[in-house]
Each structure stands twice: as C-alpha cells, then as structure tokens.
Design brief:
- The complex is a heterodimer of chains A (306) and B (168).
- With 306 residues, chain A is of the alpha/beta class.
- Chain A has nine helices and seven strands, in the order ααααβαβββαβαβαβα.
- In chain A, the strands form two sheets. Chain A has a five-stranded parallel sheet with strand order 2-1-5-6-7, sandwiched between helices. In chain A, strands 3-4 form a two-stranded antiparallel sheet.
- In chain A, helix 7 links the parallel strand 5 and strand 6.
- The radius of gyration of chain A is 32 Å and the shape is elongated.
- Chain B is α+β, with helices and mostly antiparallel strands.
- Chain B folds into two domains: 45 residues; 121 residues, no CATH class.
- About 5% of the residues of chain B have low confidence.
- The chains are: A alpha/beta (306), B alpha+beta (168).
- Chains A and B meet through helix 1, helix 2, helix 5 and helix 9 of A and helix 1, helix 2 and helix 3 of B.
Chain lengths: 306, 168
C-alpha cells in the first residue's frame, strides 16, 4: 500500500510540474513578444502617433483632384442672334476632345464680371481670379436683383447688381441664376425677370459678350436640403434659362452637362452639401468658362461708365 | 528537485522581466509627457502658416476647405501682402461659414489692421448668411479671433475649444 501511495504522489507531482512548466513557458513567450512589439513600435500598445497621419490623409483628400471630367460633346447652345458675334463660336469649332482643364491658367478674367447667387460666391472664393469682378450674394434670386443692395461699390457704399455693373465696361459678363428659383410655381415669371436683368446689363454693357450659364447639376445629397434640388428639376428649369438667353439674344452656355457623372448627377465629391462646388470643382468650372468663352484680344475698358 | 528549482528560477526571471518592462513603460510615459511639453513649446514657435495648417488638419469641418492665394486674400479680406510676413487662409465653397485665416503681421499696426479686417470679414459673412443659412450664425457670432503679439488667428469652425487649444 505504501509504495503505491508514493508512486501516486510522484505521478501527481510530475503532472503538476508539467502544468507549471507549460504555463511559465506560455507566459514567457507572451512577455517576450510584448517586449519585442514595444521595442519595435516605440509605444505601448504598439501604436504609431496619430498626429500627422490623419492630417495628411485629410489633406490628400482635399488636395487630390477628382476624376477627370469627361468633356462629352460640349453642348453649347447659342441663340441665333448671338452666334455671329459669339466668341464661343471659336471654341465650338475647336476639337471636341480638347481638354478644357487648365484653360483658365492663361486667362486672368480681368475683363470679366460674374453675376449670380451663392454658387457664384463660391466661384469667387475658389477660382483664383482676383482681377475679375463678382457681383453675387448668397440666397440672391432673380426677383430681388434690382432691389437688394448686395454690391459694395467703388465709393464704399452698397448698391444693386446693376449699380455694380455700371462702374466699368467689361469684355465678358457671366450670369447664373436658377438654383434659388427652382421651386417657383410659375417659371415663366423667372424668364420675365431674367430677361429684365439681362436687358438692363445689355444697356449698361453694349460691347460686352453676355453669357447665360445653365444651372449647374446637384448631387443626390442636395435633395436633403430641399426636395426641389433634383437634376430632373434643374434640367427642366434650364429650358427656361435658355428661353431668357434666346429672348435677349445672349449666349447660352450649357455648363451643366460637363459636370454630370454617368448617373446624370453631380459627383458626390464635387460639393460638400451637394450644391456648392468645392475648390477643385470651382477650378474646373472656371477652366470650362475660359474654354467655352475665351477672352478676346485686348483688355477691358476700365474707364468709368458715365 | 532540480527541476522544481529551475522552474522557480524561471518564474522569478519572468516576473523580473515583467517588472522591468513595467518600469520601462513608465519611462516611456515620462518621455511622452516630455514630448508633449516639447510639442507645446514647438506649437508656441509655429508660424502663422503652420498654425493654419494645424487648424485645417486637426479640426473636423463640414465644408471642404481650400487654401487661397495672396491675391485672393487681398480681394476677400482687403489685406495686402505687405502687411504680413507669413499668412495662410482657407475658405470653403460657400455652403458654410467655415474659414481659417492666420497672419504673422509685419508690425503691431499691421496686426491691428489685420484683426480689424478679420472682424469686417466676419461681419460681412454674418450679413451674407443671416437669411440664407442662419445655422452658420452660431460660429460667426462666437468666432475664434486671437491676437498673440503680432500674429492674428481666426478660425470659424464647430470646434472652438480645439481651435483655441491649437492657437494656444
């Protein structure tokens, strides 16, 4: 009995030793691996400092150019009466495959003025055309252009769009309205008001080429702001924009179609809110205008108009 | 018995290594806090451009901001380049009032002019958005506009605490 007891105890002791050995070895392996990890990464948890990584990612996101816009067949409708004087004729005769990107590098738009709403405000801030005049205001709609004092005039006072335009003579005038009027029940009223504005500008600027830009597309996100912001509505509304151009013998620029992706919408990365172009797209927009409506020889007459 | 001793020794060695590792970790922590102090000192020495870049990268913005040229700084802010030795300005796409503008002014008078120009910019933005996008009034009515020596920092964002922390 006695030797059997000893044998059993010995056996149990051996098992215990084996278990302890395995546990110790496992623990050693763990500690060794952890030490190596700490030594290699230089930080506990083996994490690399996050500052810099996030910022560079964000910057890349911001700085990186969106995919090339395909200049699918520049649809540049022009009114018949304007076609003979339009500089856009020159561009229409140009090769359709000519990339418009970079066109604004050779065009400082010093002869130009831009009239419009918040989208044109965004263009002013992000197109790097410091020599151009921008008479634009957030929320401005066509029924208020002749009453709202949204332009800081040369004398420091505030004036209407027409007051601003009257300060000097321009070679090119780009006008875009429509996004704030999309919900109007009677778009014919928009046409009437737009025609009034264009005729006023024509009187003030008899020698300028006046370009009426189509309303730019929106991304699906825009509908979250207001359900009227859809590309179907915009496409429909642009027929009224074109009517205004036709009635006044000015040049209709279909900039809209250049900024649509394969789904017929503005790409998601083109606008933070689906409506207002981010900087990269403002630069594409100004490139497109330089391409479709290039500056004609000679600079603008900057003398005061009366 | 020998095996048992060996095991005890091994266990002791492992425990000792663990303890050393713990100490070394603490040392790392100390180094980290040292680094933080150094970073704070470095932040204090940052140029206006560097501060603007940090405000741009470390704060979450709704809009997509882009840097503008000195000519555009003059156009939007009325601040000519002879008023500062270093500057960086980021603007959005007009969907929000988010904006960053940092200047190392040429002298004290220029710093005052730049601060006044930033205040004028904020006032004009308030006018621009008050009817169109009143949600943006929150950040415009409580802007981060700080003058430190001859440097002027403006940051219009949804994270004033972070902006103030970066500016210092």
């Amino acid at each position: 009995m006695q030797p059997e007891k000893v044998r059993t105890r010995k056996k149990r002791s051996q098992i215990q030793q084996s278990i302890i050995s395995v546990v110790c070895l496992a623990f050693m392996v763990f500690v060794f691996a952890w030490l190596i990890n700490t030594a290699v990464t230089g930080k506990k948890n083996g994490l690399i400092p996050t500052f810099g990584t996030a910022s560079s990612e964000k910057k890349n996101k911001t700085v990186s150019k969106p995919d090339e816009l395909k200049p699918d067949k520049p649809k540049k409708d022009e009114s018949s009466s304007a076609s003979d004087t339009s500089s856009a004729d020159d561009s229409s005769s140009a090769d359709d495959t000519l990339p418009y990107e970079g066109a604004a590098m050779k065009d400082d738009f010093s002869d130009a003025c831009f009239i419009g709403d918040s989208r044109t405000v965004g263009l002013e801030m992000n197109s790097d055309k410091a020599k151009a005049d921008f008479f634009a205001s957030q929320g401005l709609s066509i029924d208020k252009v002749d009453t709202e004092l949204v332009v800081e005039l040369d004398d420091g006072s505030l004036g209407t769009i027409a007051d601003g335009v009257a300060q000097r003579q321009y070679g090119r005038i780009f006008i875009m309205f429509g996004i704030n009027e999309l919900g109007w029940p009677y778009p014919e009223n928009f046409v009437d008001k737009y025609v009034d504005l264009i005729n006023t500008i024509k009187e003030l600027q008899p020698n300028a080429a006046i370009y009426i830009e189509s309303v730019l597309p929106v991304s699906p996100e825009a509908a979250q702001t207001n359900e009227v912001f859809t590309n179907d509505n915009i496409d429909n509304f642009n027929t009224y924009v074109k009517q205004a151009a036709d009635k006044t013998g000015t040049i209709y620029l279909d900039v809209n179609s250049y900024f649509k992706d394969e789904t017929g919408a503005l790409p998601e990365d083109a606008a933070a809110d689906g409506i207002h172009f981010v900087r990269d797209y403002c630069l594409k927009w100004i490139d497109l205008l330089a391409y479709l409506a290039p500056q004609l020889g000679g600079s603008a007459d900057t003398s005061a108009n009366g | 018995m020998n095996k048992k001793r060996l095991l005890i020794l091994l266990t002791a060695a492992v425990m000792a290594m663990g303890a050393f590792a713990g100490c070394s970790d603490k040392e790392n922590d100390d180094t980290d806090s040292g680094d933080t102090a150094k970073a704070a000192q470095a932040d204090a020495d940052m140029t206006a451009s560097q501060t603007a870049a940090k405000l741009f990268s470390d704060i979450e913005y709704v809009d997509s901001l882009g840097e503008i040229s000195p000519e555009m700084i003059e156009k939007l802010y009325g601040i000519s380049s002879d008023k500062y030795s270093d500057a960086k300005v980021y603007v959005g796409g007009a969907s929000t009032a988010e904006e960053i503008a940092c200047f190392d002014a040429a002298d004290e008078t220029a710093a005052q002019d730049i601060k006044a120009a930033c205040e004028a910019r904020i006032a004009s933005q308030i006018e621009a958005v008050k009817d169109y996008n009143p949600d943006e009034l929150d950040k415009l009515n409580d802007p981060v506009l700080v003058t430190k020596g001859n440097s002027v920092y403006m940051c219009l964002s949804n994270d004033n605490d972070k902006a103030k922390q970066i500016i210092g």
